[in-house]
Design brief:
Butyryl-CoA Dehydrogenase, subunit A, domain 2, three-stranded antiparallel beta sheet, 23 helices, 13 strands, 53% helix, binds ligand LV4UQ37V, binds flavin-adenine dinucleotide, acyl-CoA oxidase activity
Length: 675
């Protein structure tokens, strides 16, 4: 339809200008042809099922929304069982249902916590029940008074040897468990983190499996107080989740419900710690942080897909001589705001795939009792979770603005996407707190290297993602050789300046900390700088993993070439954004910074004819996108128009409240005017 300026054929035209094989790009994005096929099948299965409709979700009351979530979760499970879906298929089906709910915590945290921290015997007992949904579990760690500081949790689990039981208790208001998803209304069980006390001694935080609700009528068990903590940011959005509050009043559980893989309490009440590092208690968080990084690319690519397609449809202003209006995607400002986000979506996708590999590798090593890579796994998951979620939340909001006024409508899908996504900056570790964890590692390495710089060639070399720091002698004094804008296309030139920037920032911090009266004071004083050093290090990891991805065989005409452009855009837009870091650490000159910006402009122009095809490669159904602006067919205006009429306000022509509030007001004003 061409009525009123809406031109769906516009997207067909955009697709025709693509200079690469979109199917090949789908494979590069998904990771394999098999992954494309399964994702496509599950997405279509969900999209074609009326139970999974979500177009009126933002108009539901909290109670209706929660009930709708229960219905969808139960229906999804029914389909998973009926169709005998594999674990991979079931996870994808749940992803495409796209409604946060208790199942996310059941599969995402309760089951992994038992797998990671339970003994074989405990796994045999609890996992089959969890796998069949005979019990529903959540992850109850955070308390009203303590979230980031896990060591500060107050809930107690005191061993009573006379009964061979633990007594779970919430001694203060601030010890109430507060936030756990699925806890408020749905869960029957929880893995509860509490201070273990035995023989009068406090042994710190440990995990316990606790039944909360009756399996007959779902009522809370004696001594257990449970509820939902209340409405959250945005309409629809994360309000489908029953984040909950939990208090214990001397609730007894059998001793064997303490998760005992890391440490045990004997029948007599003796505390025994096995030879595994204590930090494995945090293993579930490492697992989830890794999945959150992979999810960042999904959320970001959805927002970018909407903004790119709509920008190709939307037209504003004509040429001076009254010619047709211009697609807003042709404006250089729109491109310079949007294409770095498109490039970031691909960058996060590839770093997410790498992180999954790292996590699997570390897990295998842990099983073989090799704990050497645990700090690397912690620093990478914490840092990448922090940087990718913060950037993604900002990017979704930027995409909303890129869609102008219509982006602010719920029907654009962007307000809800933002509201669902933005707590990722807080949950599973506040992003600042997590970056500080990374900076501790960087500071230690930088301090060590500064001390041993003379013997660094013979000394113990840093490995993994901090290996570059071992190249300290070169990186502290190197000068970029870039002389033309095109020189910045060389991945080695990019890598060198990102490494030098990250290392110099870490070393500067370490030098300044060493001048402070104590390391603790120095660390506190310098913490804003340490955060920036950690960000520089994490951005280096993302850039490096993108470059490494391009060294792989990537089939499909033109696919690798497009990815090379996106990789350059990703790195150079960061260089442009953080120019102050690169200049102040002396890694590049002002002229080299200007050359990078010059190249960026050229790259945007090269991406422009491919932009729509690059978002098509994400392979999202209209159902999953949930946006009238991002429709595959580009038929935006009729859809926007139709969507408006679905609003409950439009159910009557004259609004409710007219008789009580509008009519008397209007009549009164009329009378006054006649006086
Ligand atoms: C089906 C598949 C789908 C899966 C997807 C599911 C996703 C579902 C999404 C649902 C949505 C939301 C879920 C949200 C759930 C939550 O939010 S759960 C609660 C999360 N809470 C936190 O993240 C708390 C953050 N705080 C911490 O992690 C720690 O307290 C902190 C690391 C900040 C500090 O730890 P401390 O022990 O107090 O202190 P330190 O002295 O700093 O550390 C001691 C040493 O331990 C090392 N360390 C710390 N953490 C880890 C870790 N995770 N792994 C390994 N090592 C760790 C640290 O480096 C220190 O080491 P050192 O002594 O220096 O060598
Ligand atoms: C939607 C949602 C779902 C959640 N789901 C769960 C769940 O299923 N299970 C569960 O157990 N928990 C859950 N949580 C809780 C979540 O893990 C915590 O909110 C999170 O870990 C942050 O802790 P906090 O709330 O104590 O923040 P705080 O630590 O109080 O943060 C407040 C401010 O202080 C700053 N700050 C804190 N410490 C430091 C420091 N050392 N240095 C500098 N600045 C600092 C932070 O950066 C932040 O700006 C959920 C939270 C949300 C929002």
């Amino acid at each position: 339809m061409a009525d009123g300026g809406g031109e769906p054929d516009q997207l067909a035209g955009e697709r025709a200008t693509a200079q690469f094989d979109v199917d090949g790009m789908k494979v590069a994005w998904a990771g394999s042809r098999h992954a494309v096929e399964v994702a496509d099948r599950m997405a279509r299965l969900v999209a074609s099922d009326p139970v999974f409709r979500k177009d009126t979700r933002t108009m539901l009351s909290r109670k209706e929304l929660f009930k709708d979530t229960l219905k969808k979760a139960a229906h999804a499970w029914k389909r998973i069982v009926e169709l005998r879906l594999t674990e991979e298929e079931a996870n994808l089906l749940r992803l495409y249902v796209d409604q946060p709910g208790y199942v996310d915590l059941h599969w995402g945290m309760f089951v992994p916590a038992i797998k990671g921290q339970g003994t074989e015997e405990q796994q045999k007992k609890w996992l089959p029940m969890a796998y069949k949904f005979q019990i529903i579990g959540c992850y109850a760690q955070t308390e009203l008074g303590h979230g980031s500081n896990v060591q500060g949790l107050e809930t107690t689990a005191t061993f009573d040897p006379s009964a061979d039981e633990f007594v779970m208790h919430s001694p203060t208001l601030t010890s109430s468990k507060w936030w756990p998803g699925g806890l408020g209304k749905a869960s029957t069980h929880a893995v509860v983190y509490a201070r273990l006390i035995t023989e009068g001694k406090d042994y710190g935080i440990h995990g316990f499996i606790v039944q909360l609700r009756s399996l007959d009528d779902h009522s809370p068990l004696p001594g257990v107080t449970l509820g939902d903590i209340g409405g959250k940011f945005g309409s629809g959005a994360y309000n489908s989740m029953d984040n909950g509050v939990l208090r214990f009043d001397h609730v007894r559980i059998p001793r064997d419900q303490m998760l005992m893989r890391l440490s045990q309490v004997t029948r007599e009440g003796k505390y025994v710690h096995s030879d595994v590092p204590k930090q494995l208690l945090y293993g579930t968080m490492v697992y989830v942080r890794q999945t959150i990084v992979a999810d960042a690319s999904k959320a970001l690519s959805r927002a970018v897909c909407i903004a790119v397609r709509y920008s190709a449809i939307r037209k504003q202003f004509g040429s001076q001589d009254g010619g047709p209006e211009t697609q807003v995607l042709n404006y250089k400002t729109q491109q310079s705001r949007l294409f770095p986000l498109l490039a970031s979506a691909y960058a996060y996708r590839f770093v997410g795939q790498w992180l999954k590999w790292l996590y699997t590798d570390v897990t295998q090593k842990l099983e073989a009792k090799d704990y050497s890579t645990l700090p690397e796994a912690h620093a990478c998951t914490a840092g990448l979770k922090s940087v990718t979620t913060s950037a993604t939340a900002d990017a979704i909001e930027e995409c909303r603005k890129l869609c102008g006024g219509h982006g602010y409508l719920n029907s654009s899908g962007l307000p809800e996407l933002f509201a669902v996504y933005v707590p990722a900056c807080t949950y599973e570790g506040d992003n600042v707190v997590l970056l500080l964890q990374v900076s501790v590692v960087l500071h230690l390495v930088a301090r060590f290297l500064m001390k041993t710089v003379a013997q660094v060639a013979t000394g113990k070399q840093p490995v993994g993602t901090i290996a570059y720091m071992g190249n300290i002698q070169h990186l502290m004094q190197c000068k970029s050789a870039v002389n033309t804008a095109e020189d910045w296309l060389n991945p080695a030139a990019i890598k060198e300046v990102f490494e030098a920037r990250a290392l110099r920032m870490a070393v500067n911090c370490a030098q300044n900390i060493s001048k402070a009266p104590s390391q603790e004071e120095g660390f506190s004083e310098l913490s804003p700088d340490l955060l920036e050093a950690a960000v520089a290090h994490v951005q280096l990891i993302i850039v490096t993993k993108f470059i490494e991805k391009l060294q792989e065989d990537i089939p499909g005409p033109g696919v690798k070439e497009q990815l090379q452009k996106l990789c350059s855009i990703y790195a150079l837009h960061l260089l442009h954004k953080h120019l102050g870091d690169f200049l102040s650490t002396g890694c590049i000159t002002a002229r080299q910074g200007a050359l990078a910006n010059e190249l960026l402009g050229k790259l945007y122009a090269q991406v422009r004819p491919n932009a729509v095809a690059l978002v098509d490669a994400f392979d999202y159904t209209d159902h999953y996108l949930g946006s009238v602006l991002g429709r595959y067919d580009g038929d935006v205006y009729p859809a926007l128009y139709e969507e408006a009429w679905k609003d409950p306000l439009n159910e009557t022509v004259v609004p409710d409240g007219y008789q009580e509030h509008l009519r008397p007001l209007l009549k009164q004003q009329l009378k006054l005017s006649r006086l």
